[in-house]
Structure formats: C-alpha cells, structure tokens
Request: fold
Amino acid sequence: MASLLQVALQSWSFPIWLSFSTLLTALLYLRGWLRLRAAVVSAIPAWRAGSFTIGLLLIWLAIGSPLARLDEELLSVHMIQHLLLMTIAPPLIWLGAPAMPFLHGLPQRFVQAVVGPLLREPLVQRLGRALGQPVFCWLAATAALVGWHIPAAFTLALHSEAWHVLEHTSFLTTGLLFWWPVVQPWPRVAVSPQWSILLYLFLATLPCDVLSGFLVFSERVVYPAYFSASPHFGLSVLSDQELAGALMWTSVTVVYLIPAAILTARLLAPRSSVQHELAQAELRHTTVSQSSPRGLDAV
Reply:
C-alpha cells in the first residue's frame, strides 16, 4: 500500500487549470442556487446542490487527483476512473438540476445578451432535441465504452497524454448524454414514457456485461501494456484484469438498478399520486421560471 501511494504522489502534480475550472463551476452553481433559494425557498432543494457538488468532486478525483496517476499501474484503477466519469458523476450532476442555477449564477448581462438569444436559436433547439433522443444517447455511450476498450485504442490513450484527455472527455460527455433521458434535468424537458426508460437501462447493461465478462473470464491479458507495471497488493496482471471486470459488472448493475427501482415504483404507484407528484414538479418549475432573468422566459 505504501509503495502504491508513493508512486501516485511522486508522479502527481496539482492540476491548476482543472481545479480552477472545477471550483469556478461550483461557485457559479452555488451563486445561482442561493439566488433561487432567496426568491423561492423550495425551488431547488439543498440535496440537489449537494448532488451537483459531489458530482464535480468525483470528476476531479477521476482525472485530477493522485488516483489518475495510478491508471498506468493498475487496470482496476483505470476502470474506477471510467466508472466515475461515465456512470457515477453524470447522474449526480444532472440531479443537481444545473440549468436554472447557472442562468442565475452567471452575470445577468451575459445571460441576456448571449445565453438567452443562443438558447432561442432554432438550430440550437433542434440540435438539443436531437442530442437528447434516447437512441442517440445510448449509441454514443456504447460506442465510447466499447471503442476505448479496444486494445489498440486503449494502449494509444495509455501512452499519449492528448489521446488520454480525449478518452476522458468522451467518457464524461457520453456519460452526461446517457443519463440525460433517465434523470431529465431540464425544467421543461419532454418526459419519455417511464417503461421505455426501463428498457433503455436494461439494454445499456448488455455491452457492459459483455465487456466485463470478457475481462473476467479471459485466460489471457487483454492489455499487454500492464506487463511493464510493478505488481501491487500481490495482484498479477491477469488478476488485476479480473478485478477490473468485476468492478465494472457490480458497479453498473447497482447504479442502473437504483433508477430502475425508482421508475418501477412509480409505474406501480396509484395513478393519482403520480399525477400529484408531476403537478407539484410543474408548479415548482413554473415558479422558478417566473424568477428567471429577463429575456429568458421563452427559452
């Protein structure tokens, strides 16, 4: 354990720009959230702000902390990075309902002069609707997951800093896309049928199950680059690979099961209680929209 920490700390340098951008994003969100709370106490509950902040922290841990320097030593650590960026941080970010806090946190002149007109552009709205389609979100996330785990692409990202950054960016971007139809964070988003989201989540587990099963049950090392890494915790390269596959399978299963269970409970709930919940949500969104910066009412 001590040697592993030494490797991480010796090769780690504090990521100034990443840390600055993460902190600035958090401050803008919290600034807008506090303004909304001052106008409407129940607009965005405190747990949503906490969820957004934790999501940002997990992104920083995945790509900016000493953990990021261990991905060349252990495939299991590399897998933890991928899971944080694709599976865990994105739903936490969307649960923070970031749209309205950012609109209130950014300088109001900038929002009225730039953000508002941009969001009202027909091309931008059509692009947003296209990117939010569940089929596109599923395909994008699956392509990123499978594509970057092809041995040639994986090795390229492991040995090239530029490709490594692109890999992490694609994981985070497609992770946000994937969770968009599930969490549906925007105040006026069109709600998809809940039974279709259950199917969406089930189909998303299939490529993860295939990949994790391949890593666990393969009798050869899939990524030879790890042969040059020093053994840690008494793990052989093959054992580390099996652990990485097991981490993917268990994490994806548990994380996807949570929204599936919530949606199933809603489907089985009495229709009147579901309608009441939707009515309350619509009331909150309407109240928040009325406190939006001038010029954004039509967004």
Observations:
- Residues 51 and 161 are 30 Å apart (CA to CA).
- Residues 12-108+128-290 form one domain.
- The chain is about 75% helix and 0% strand.
- The longest helix spans residues 237-268.
